[in-house]
Amino acid sequence: MVLDWSIHNGSGSACGRPQRQDDGVGYDALLWLSFGGPEGPDDVMPFLENVTRGRGVPRERLLEVAEHYQHFGGVSPINKLNRDAMAAVEKQLAAAGMALPVHFGNRNWHPMVEDTLASLTAEGAKRVLVFPTSAYGGYSACRQYDEDIERARAAVGPEAPELVKLRQFFDHPLFVSAVADGVRAAHASLGNQPGVRTVFTAHSVPDSADRASGPPAEGGHRYSRQIAEAARLVAAEAGIAEYDVVWQSRSGPPQVPWLEPDIVDHIDALHEAGVPGVVVSPIGFVSDHLEVIWDLDNEAAERAAEHGMAFARAATAGSDPRFAELVVELIREHTHGVEPRKLSPFPAAGCTVNGAPCAIGCCEPAKRPAR
């Protein structure tokens, strides 16, 4: 059975077609691929140096960001959140009778993806599915995970297993419903007060990176358009007629344009317009990692409090039981030919084999400006 997902890559047919073996699964493991985060005070600076290697970020900026981590004891919640989500997925897989172990690998901190892939190779794995912890397209949200896969396979060598990355899921009905319920609960925590504005946030990226996101023939801006579409779907599911889409967590030199407005600036504007409160949904993130709990639960919440505005932050989808169901469903698209479910007209994308782009020229990394 061949599934036409409008996915194109030149590295094989594993995207869109079940790969069955005698066990009915056809894959040896699931690799849970994430960003990584420090798990103690001594990890913070080495972790940040890994994140920014080759980018020329001044040490003063690293020390500033390090303070955010030290505010939480030098521990990012991201690794624990990933392990919790992995355990939920393993439980769902077991319930479905699928013998597919889940292994953890990170880009920037231990367990590093290269080490995890080396272990899988030593165990004899030949074909492995990869779940990247991002729902969207774009360089940072998608193609950089392909680079992680390519780098890890190169580090392991010719015996490395085939790695098939699962597709983007920003418009999957389980993701949309989980985020929508978080928005409803946040409004309820404020007593469903009239006039409270719903604001969706996602990680800002340079304008140039957003212009380059998606295949060139599509005209770019896939990342910001997907965020806008996810916000539309969630708002419709939650019964919200008016909402805003804004950005957070920008970094880099001030002369480089990034997606705007920033969430804190937007709260200022809402206050000037007489809005009594705000519900913020971090729709661009799958879990409550540091950029969510610092930029929203601290900085944005404090700005709202300064203005006397009600504030509630909606939950991310990663801790919702439907998130594990979503991951298993994405897996079953490959193992059992389950029809992909999606709520938007965007083509299903992001499924790649061995790190090859899912389309020619898709999400090419932007050249960094000279400093």
From TrEMBL:
Enzyme class at the top of the EC tree: lyase
Annotated binding of Fe-coproporphyrin III, by residue: S76, Y145
Example GO biological process: heme biosynthetic process
Location(s), subcellular: Cytoplasm
Biochemical pathway: Porphyrin-containing compound metabolism; protoheme biosynthesis
InterPro entries, per database record: Ferrochelatase, Ferrochelatase_C, Ferrochelatase_N
Residue sites binding Fe(2+) per the record: H203, E291
Reactions accelerated catalytically: Fe-coproporphyrin III + 2 H(+) = coproporphyrin III + Fe(2+)
Molecular functions (GO terms): ferrochelatase activity; metal ion binding
A Pfam family reported for this protein in Swiss-Prot or TrEMBL: Ferrochelatase
EC number(s) stated in the UniProt entry for this protein: 4.99.1.9
Annotated GO CC locations: cytoplasm
CDD domains reported in the protein's UniProt record: Ferrochelatase_C (cd00419), Ferrochelatase_N (cd03411)
Domain of life: Bacteria
Keyword annotations of the record: Cytoplasm, Heme biosynthesis, Iron, Lyase, Metal-binding, Porphyrin biosynthesis
Biological function: Involved in coproporphyrin-dependent heme b biosynthesis. Catalyzes the insertion of ferrous iron into coproporphyrin III to form Fe-coproporphyrin III.
Family of this protein: Belongs to the ferrochelatase family.
UniProt-recorded name of the protein: Coproporphyrin III ferrochelatase
Organism annotation: Amycolatopsis tolypomycina
Taxon lineage: Bacteria, Bacillati, Actinomycetota, Actinomycetes, Pseudonocardiales
Originating gene: cpfC
